[in-house]
Amino acid sequence: TLLLALLWPGLPWQQRHPGETRLWMLDIGQGDSFLTQFEDGRTLLMDGGPARPDAGAWVVVPALRALGIQRLDWVVASHADADHVGGLAWVLDQMPVGVLLTNGQSSDTQAWTGLMASAQRRNVPQRRLGTDVPPTPDDGPWTVLAPIPVKHRVSHSKRKRKHPPRVDTNA
Length: 171
Prior knowledge:
There is one protein chain. Helices cover 24% and strands 16% of the residues. It contains five helices and six strands, in the order αβββαβααβαβ. Strands 1-2-3-4-5-6 form a six-stranded mixed sheet, with no helix packed on it. β5 (97-102), α5 (110-121) and β6 form a beta-alpha-beta unit. α2 crosses α4 and α4 (88-94) packs parallel to α5. The longest helix is centred in the middle third of the chain and has 12 residues, at 55-66.
């Protein structure tokens, strides 16, 4: 039984992999859901797919459990569209979550209000992310690239790239 306990994927030391960050792109249909596991075992889930059918229940939580993930340090709701946050309410209801990170914009959609209700019910702290928000000691080993504050944006006519550039607001 000791060997079984040492091989169980949910044990904390089994989730650490020095020098290696792992990324899973979860197949949730329309929308997005990405799980990042950092080398120290901390986890970030970005988006949770649609609510109908509930990607949180039929893909995200089962995938997390299959990977041995027992807690999410950060859950990011990139924006309030249902195909990005619809499944996150189920995730928050099923797993311990350290903090819910959003872009600061709210919505009156059923998917968004369901997510906010789950966060409140489970006492999950919420925090806004953006390039204009200074990092906290609780932030992970990641950098916020968007949204870019209006005062730092480059007009589409002046931009030579398709994607917005990374902007360092410390200058």
